[in-house]
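Lecture notes, part 5. Sequence design as translation. It can be helpful to think of inverse folding as translation between two languages: the language of shapes and the language of residues. The source text, in structure tokens, appears below.
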């Protein structure tokens, strides 16, 4: 049957509005599935050896799609080799705290204007955007109020960060636990934005990517 004006057809409008809703949901809730291909044949982590993100497809997860966005997320996700979602905490999370993931760049690797240009579907109102936190891993920055505390922790974790990002090191649970212990020690001492905290968060994500073999691409990954 032909319709001169499809807007008067209730079935057509219902199906059309449903499809439009699904398209909009998919744009902000689907996740890319990719694996990390090392250019080096070594089983060790060597950031400088180079990595390639190979896309496997995308998905809309029943649980992952329920997490809201923040440029200062408290959880991240990666995929196991059998394509199972793995969620892990970036820092200690108190009971009753809302879980936030990052739909794109973290604040510490991308200026506010750049993040807003890339997100056309919503306006982020996280604390990093509201207070315009500096991208601390792109340009040197230390809060003068905690300068000496920040400096002392930076010196303390430098050997660990150097080991992870500049040298080959076997990824194991001992290395993961070392990074987690450092994060637990620093989280109550250095408030964000903190260069040292962000370095540890980036190191934690690098370890999970390598440990499980599959990961969501992390843009603007800094190497040191």
């Amino acid at each position: 049957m032909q319709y001169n004006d499809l807007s008067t057809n209730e079935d057509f409008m219902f199906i059309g509005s449903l499809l439009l809703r699904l398209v909009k949901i998919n744009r902000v809730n689907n996740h890319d599935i990719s694996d990390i291909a090392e250019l080096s044949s070594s089983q060790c982590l060597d950031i400088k050896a180079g990595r390639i993100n190979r896309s496997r497809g995308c998905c809309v997860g029943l649980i992952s799609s329920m997490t809201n966005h923040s440029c200062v997320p408290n959880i991240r996700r990666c995929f196991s080799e059998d394509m199972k979602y793995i969620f892990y905490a970036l820092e200690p999370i108190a009971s009753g705290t809302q879980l936030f993931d990052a739909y794109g760049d973290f604040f510490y690797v991308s200026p506010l204007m750049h993040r807003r240009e890339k997100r056309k579907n919503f306006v982020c109102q996280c604390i990093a955007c509201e207070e315009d936190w500096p991208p601390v891993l792109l340009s040197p920055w230390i809060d003068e109020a905690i300068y000496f505390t920040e400096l002392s922790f930076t010196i303390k974790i430098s050997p660990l960060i150097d080991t992870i990002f500049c040298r080959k090191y076997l990824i194991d649970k001992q290395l993961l636990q070392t990074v987690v212990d450092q994060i637990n020690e620093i989280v109550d001492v250095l408030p964000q934005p903190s260069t040292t905290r962000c370095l540890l968060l980036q190191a934690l994500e690098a370890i999970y990517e390598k440990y499980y073999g599959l990961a969501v691409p992390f843009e603007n990954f800094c190497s040191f």
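The translated text above is only one of many valid answers, since several sequences can fold into similar shapes. Residues 39-50, 214-224 have pLDDT under 50 and may be disordered.
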